[in-house]
Amino acid sequence: MDNFYDLEKALLKVERDTQHGYLSFPALFRHYEIKCYKMLFGAFEFTGFPEEWDYDYVLDNIFRNGLIGICNTPLGVLPLQCGLTGLNVFSHPTTAIFANPVLGNFERDLFSDNPRDACALVRLQYNYAGCDHLIDKYASQLAEIDNSISVNLKNTKVAQIFFADSKQQAATLQEMYRQIDSGKPVVAVKSDALTPEGVYYNHVRESFIAQDLQLLKADIINEFLTDIGLNNTNYQKRERLIVDEVNANNDEIKSNVQHWLDTMREGLDRANTVFGLNLGVKLRQFDKRKGGEENDSDETEDTV
Questions:
Q1: What is the pLDDT of residues 54-66, one digit of tens each?
Q2: How many Å apart are CA 260 and CA 264, to the nearest integer?
Q3: Choice between 202 and 272, residue whose per-residue pLDDT is larger
Q4: Residue 60 near residue 33 (C-beta atoms within 8 A)
Q5: DSSP assignment string, 48-92
């Protein structure tokens, strides 16, 4: 293998082959990790970015790494991936360390108001961590459910089990089943090839739980949407909800992301003050009456 990536692809291929074409858990996890991050990125909208800034780069660093540093560089004011060092009296870092492949290594002061050596740190939450723990939780659960659905669908294919006393009889039964499976309307076998005592009928309907797993999967996705501040339909609730239940769900949605918004806005406001920018962030609102399109009306612009 040339590198680790090639080795990883080979291992995933082996796991897929050993599972008869079904995706392995690592492949399913990767699928849902990407899906959850896309939903997370789509939940928030950053405004006021200069044209030369890379929007995806900023979101990836804030939500994956937990922070990004905005500072002055020879290329202008840029948001860049950084590390932290130093501690003040409240155990907060005092210095941002940058190691950029183009700009090289340099440091910036997190508390300076001088645009030349200052850094505005935009962090996601109080502990400077990203959302990996959240994404890992839901991606793992969704991957496990998909594995269970695949296994259940495979098991429901076994409707009958035939008992044979010899290899010749087993071959006859296999050929009979092959012809039936191919759609042949008339299949003839010897009278002693098949007896009622020689067939076990598997109760596939009783063991079919894929529909329940799909509902559970939808419920987990709704829980994830609640955690990232997006309105969703709770499938576990009864059809008619009282007003108090709706309000309680809305409060839970807002409380889950209020800290994120407050913390990010604190860093963006500092960047606006130090570097003369006009940055902002808000939670997207989607108008269900318009087929899920984003609603940019003034009534829903400031969400929480």
A1: 999 999 999 999 9
A2: 6
A3: 272
A4: no
A5: ---TTS-HHHHHHIIIIISEEEEEEETTEEEEE--EEE---TTS-
Q: Among candidates 137, 129, 152, which has minimal Cα distance to 29?
A: 137
- Please give the Cα distance from 211 to 218 (Å, whole number): 11
A 10 A CB-CB count for 2 gives 6
Instruction: Give the C-alpha separation, 194 to 204, whole Å.
Output: 21
Q: How far is residue 109's CA from residue 205's CA, in Å, rounded to a whole number?
A: 66
Tokens 């191919």, residue located: 182
pLDDT at 301 over 50: no
Task: Say what the pTM is.
Answer: 0.72
Least Cα distance to 270 among 126, 121, 79, 108 occurs for 121
CA-to-CA dists, residue 243 to 230, 238, 253, angstroms: 19, 13, 16
User: What tokens does 169 get?
Assistant: 């009889």
pLDDT at 203: 64
User: d(Cα 294, Cα 40) in Å, to the nearest integer?
Assistant: 15
CA-to-CA dists, residue 268 to 86, 100, 121, 123, angstroms: 22, 21, 8, 9
Task: Based on DSSP, count helices (H) and strands (E) in the chain, helices before strands.
Answer: 9, 12
What separation in angstroms does the CA of 140 have from each of 54, 134, 215, 227, 264? 30, 10, 17, 16, 27
Which of the four pLDDT bands, split at 50, 70 and 90, describes residue 163?
Answer: confident
What are the residues whose beta carbons fall under 8 Å from the beta carbon of 217, sequence distance 6 or more?
142, 145, 146, 149
